[in-house]
Amino acid sequence: MRVLSLALVVVLVSPLAACNSGRSAMDGARQFGAGLGAAATAPLDDLNLRRQYIPTVLLQAEANPYDLRNLNQCATIGAEIARLNEALGPDTDEPPAPDGSFLSERAADAASAAALDAIRDAVTDFIPGRSWIRRLSGAEQHSRHVQSAIQAGRMRRAFLKGTGMQRNCAPPAAPGWFRPRGRNQR
User: Which residues have C-beta within 8 Å of that of residue 171, sequence separation ≥ 6?
Assistant: First the structure.
């Protein structure tokens, strides 16, 4: 019964994901298909056969989040923050980039994401003792390492922006709301 209802969700949401006025039907269907493949192979993560990649900049942040070597100018601080933004996405002090999407497109994307989450949940529910398998395979430990690296990257980005403010740097070497006093010091 659950598989049947899951199939029904896929059939109903696929056209919604593809039927956006800003995107072609092929693009929406392709994105949903890629997400469907990732959701269907979710057990590979639980068995530790597929691992989430951790960017080098986050591993460096995890090793030493307060390192200021070679960061003695506003430009170098800004470049390091840009590397962190690439790995983490935009910081909370930055307004979201306008994507030009319509409300109907965002609703279709949300419905598509909900359907993919349901598929991922249904596929992983078939694994008996999933939490034990994740622990024994090392997948749980790797997941904690990924979260630790993300946290360290966020902490480093905040530290660097504070350092940029102290040195009177303009954004992106400081928070987006910060306005330097007079001339930049460096």
Answer: 78, 178
Please name which of 132, 55, 125, 42 lies closest in space to residue 89, comparing C-alpha atoms: 55
Closest CA to 109 of 36, 8, 17: 17
What is the separation, in whole angstroms, between the first and last Cα of the chain? Answer: 66
Q: How confident is the model at residue 3 (pLDDT cuts 50, 70, 90)?
A: very low
Tell me how far CA of residue 17 lies from CA of 26, 99, 109, in angstroms: 10, 16, 6
Give the whole-number percent of the chain exceeding pLDDT 90: 39
pLDDT digits (tens, 9 = 90+) for 87-116: 999 888 877 666 666 777 777 777 877 877
Any long-range contacts for 168-177 (C-beta under 8 Å, 24+ apart)? Answer: 169/74, 169/77, 169/78, 170/74, 171/78, 172/78, 172/81, 172/82, 172/85, 173/74, 173/75, 173/77, 173/78, 173/81, 175/91, 175/93, 176/91, 176/93, 176/94, 176/95, 177/93
